[in-house]
Specification:
single chain, 281 residues, mainly alpha, 81% helix
Amino acid sequence: MAVGEEILAPPARLPARASTLRARRRRTLTQVGVVIGEVVLALLVWEIAVGSLRLVEPIFFPPPSAIGAAFADLLSRGVFADHIPYSLRNFATGYVLAAVVGITAGLAIGSSYALGRLLGPVAWSLYAMPWISIRPATTIWFGFGAEPIIFLVFLASLLPVLLNTMSGVRTVDPALLRAGRVFGGGRVQLWWKVVLPSAVPFVLTGLRLAVISGFIGLLVAELVGSSRGFGALVAIASSRFRVEEAFATIALLVAISVTGVRAVGLLERHVSVWRTRSSSA
């Protein structure tokens, strides 16, 4: 070996890292394949039981082929083009308001012992209330239009965010707060470095649950007293015995709801990087 010649050893971590990524991809593809297989199998059994064997009357419980045909018909006639933006606009307004109010109130109530004792039981009582039952009253309060729908979406989305945020703040390890004070951390630093990173998973869980409950509130609100939206489509189709159109509308609503939950999951993945960086800073 000549003088000054360097021996370049290959990095030892790259093969292990690559194999880990390949293993993760395989697991992901396996999980996706299993889910797709289960869905296809369920649809096939459903089609055979209802469409071929007619174990259930199709007028009451249509097969997937009829639902798919109804979906294509509604799409081609432009029915969804008028109703989808209306519903999504109402949902987005109520959901964003619920997220802002729920996170702010949850942080305040969870960090204050007095507010927790005063407002905590009220929040849990509201969560236990069957809020669907107040839909007729919202028409009296807000009249006809989008306002009662937005209010029910707001109410249905608010409580999961608020209660989960409260729980996230209250589960912060007191030892971490004491350690932060020992090292000279102020109130703002403790909130930014300790409280918020610890509460973020709970907040995102609340936001994820709020997507589902918010869409349920949207559907219920539009079922009564609304001439537009997903709920109105379901009500009109059911009243005319076009059950396949009602199922097609519900299937589209479920797909949008699942997409929203996945979007919050992607947000959680990005925020997890922030949590790691803020905790190590």
